[in-house]
User: Fold these one by one.
Assistant:
Number 1:
Amino acid sequence: MDLTNIENIPIEQMLKLSKDYGIYELIIDDKSSLCNKSLNETKLTEDYIQVLQVDHGNNITDFPQPTLVLQAGDKLIVYGRTKSIFRRIMGKKNSNLDKNDHRIDS
């Protein structure tokens, strides 16, 4: 692969996404079961969900530590098993739901 011409590489190839895994941007709702919990307490990794970034609005944390506490309004970028993201984070049982629904309301 020629890395000098990276702009011509499809994003799916760069991210090596499969049909079962994806990257999502989500916003923590104040009623979310994740609100006011540390990443460790959420146990998201047990469901094959990795938080890549947390945007607190005034502070962005890349590759956050397990002790980081999620707050209402936080914007997360997560990578993981699509079914787990919809079931565990978004509180929805069907992973074929509207892909434009990015709010966490579980």
Number 2:
Amino acid sequence: MTARAAASPNRLREFRLARRSTIDALAYEAEVGSTTVWRVENGRVLPNRATMRALAAALGESVDVLFPPEQPEPASDTGPTTSNGRAVNAAEARLPGGRGHGARLA
């Protein structure tokens, strides 16, 4: 397992509870530690591929179903704007008495 936290939620708990299984029972079936299952379910760690495969096999699901691929965050297409939609750059927004002074940021 890697030490980095899971960036996106996984569905491990959802499928484990649907089977009315405990963390300990799933850990036993997947031949991993119960602490590992808890950490994965709670997003504390992102498991390596071998652990993902073991957990998926124990639940009778595919890795892609339990651990959906990360979806990139949509990039903001615009920055701050005034109430009339005009773009405000950072320098304008900080100028007291300047064009950006008092501008409402959307």
Number 3:
Amino acid sequence: MGDGGDQLIVVGHRRGTRGRHGLARMVISRRHLSGFRVQAIYSPAVLRALTRPLTEFGRDRPPLMWSSREEAEQMAASWRDLPVKAARGMGQALAGCSCTDAR
């Protein structure tokens, strides 16, 4: 989960909390995300959340990260060029979300 390309790990603040309750981390299908781009991570809390082992999925190792910025930019470009179509009947509320890939 989260490191095969169809599902991605995302980190952010819960809506309406303005950061008061820490960061939320989840694995979400790539078909619900758009606008992939590579940005540096400056927040230690975000980096910890992205690199924490996926124990909630029975994994004791951290998720895979890209080895270079160039590799991450190539993946982001391929995801922009080849989006995954949302299945019919799936909620459209998530279709307009954007993702900042910070690996």
